[in-house]
Amino acid sequence: MSGLLAESRERLQRAGIEQPGLEARLLVKHQLENTDAELIAFGERPVTPCQAEAVRMLIAARVAGQPIAYLLGQREFWSLSLRVDADCLIPRPETELLVERALRHLPPGPARALDLGTGSGAIALALKSERPQLQAWASDVDAGALAMAAANARRLELAVYWFRGRWLEAVASRPIFDLIVSNPPYIAADDPHLSAGDVRFEPRRALVAAEGGLADLRTIAGESLSRLRPGGWLLLEHGADQGSAVRALLREAGCREVSSHADLAGLERVTEGCVAA
Q: 113 pairs with which residues across the strands?
């Protein structure tokens, strides 16, 4: 086992993976269904040819650029272990800012929040985990993504209402919300970042929007205020260079107290506004 681990680490290192030792351990452990303790305690235990070949295929997929989150089938977000696959975006640390800002604006006690374009369910589940009394709703247009989100909720034992549909259409006949939050597609179709890194393998429909990346942000801003109670908040994640444009969208829609907030890299990542009380 230790020899296979060393071989895997070397292959990842040659491929330029930033943390080859860590990723080799994660992938070997995942494929062999071992714990960290077992890797250490039984490092000299031989593996079967079939096991070795399965590990090598997994390493080859990573060398080819496949996101490690998809290969492992899971990603940590907001202290939650979420299952992910190619039907949904990989939850990223920057999106935790969206959760932080949403928690600031949720009223104490029972409240109702809606996560639009939920993907793996990361945002809705993070909010529900912090506010057990929250009535969490979430929607997505993709059936595969919704199935993954619902499976995550069941495994984490967190209750969320799931709806399929495009943005507010999914909950057209549903009640008014205290807060609406979304991490929608916001990348322009010609953005060069689409041909690099993990995004090459993520669902394009969850990444790309028309109007230079602003179309879905504009739609959500325009539809949300009529579904928010007076004093309710709309929060949107967006690209690092879109803060000014999204602030304008929220003001045009009628939001008050519009502001943008920077992530840990100092880049504007979340813009928010509220309905007049």
A: 136, 179
